[in-house]
Amino acid sequence: MFSLPEGHRACLLPHLYKVAVVKKAQPQVHDTVLEGNGKLILQIILLCVIFQFLLKILTAEKPMMNFTFYNPTRIHFGEGQIAKISKEIPKDAKVLMIYGGGSIKSNGIYEQVKEALSHHEWSEFSGIEPNPKYNTAMQAIEIIKEKNIDYLLAVGGGSVIDAVKFIAAAALFKGDDPWDMLAKQTKVEQAIDFGVVLTLPATGSESNSGSVMTRDGNKLFFGSPLVYPTFAILDPSVTLSLSDRQISNGVIDAFVHTVEQYLTYPVNAKIQDRFAEGILQTLVEDGPLALDDDTKDNIEVRANLMWSATMALNGLIGLGVPQDWATHMIGHELTALHGIDHARTLSIVYPAVLKMCKTAKREKLIQYGKRVWNLTNQDEQELINQAIAKTEEYFRTMQVPTRLSDVDLTNSDIDPVLSKLKQHRMVMLGEHQDIDLDKSREILTMAL
Which of 70, 182, 203, 429 is deepest in the core (most CB within 10 A)? Predict the structure, then answer.
């Protein structure tokens, strides 16, 4: 016999009562008759009722999952907010400002930060790459130890912030190799406090606890509550100097971050869904405006894109809902192997993931098509196809590739990606953990 949870047993009682009434209503006949055809019919009826009830349970929308929300990062949003650094960092702190290739010295950001740090003891370290590298980050740690640095300030986009998260934890790591935090998922026990001045909205790293680093062709993730930034400055005016490529990458990164958490299967998380849909609609509306010569300098457009990117991955829309991330895991390998911009790997892989997972994502694809793209087709399968086509069309509007062939990759480049996925144990991906290496191959083949 099988057993049902107490709540489901209670729901089943009315159905069993119906069967009992049927049995009670049977005319009085000899016991041998009841033991024959009549009893068999009652058993069949009972089994049918139980089957229908179990079918309802299995096909019913799953409930929102339990969650605990924690995000300690204080956000200062708007023009002129860089000056707030002076009050956020303790006066007696020894600060190391960390940034990338030096563009902040040509767009005025460096001078603003320098002024805000004028009453602090501070040093600087530059050279953090896009897709930050382990060896570069370790050079910063040498300065930290040499100068007894006890506070870090990341000035840049997601790559700089991710590197600073790693540096903050690695500087106090007690083991042999800080890379173990990524390769072996060794727990982070302590980290140096740090703040952020965001210059390129994209990854949401300015208010989350995750980081991605690269070493010897391996791009891996680590996360810890200890590497939340203590504060983040979001001044949309600093994004006016970004190139079209940087704008496109940032918008696509935020878009795919959102759908990785939203476009899975329903759990009746109405607030999270509506937040996610609002972010997507904003990116669809304002993303192209940031590339248009007539509107690209509109500070309101830049402000909405900056806030969208932060909200896409600060933990809020992912609360209590299933999450996918297959596109990101496959994309990381493409970046590590071929140096393709992270966002552009996402725009290549994600449409293929949707095509591969049409059935598993059916309900949410329909919802996405109706609410984000305002589709009205009564044929649900056609609506799904239109939603996927709209997504690809949008990516192309944002001037990013949607095929491996767009970045000069061919079928011969698929096996090395699968080998890396296997090496990194990324063999059961997606919200259902059902995207194995064979399905990853199909996804990459669809993306050719």
Answer: 203
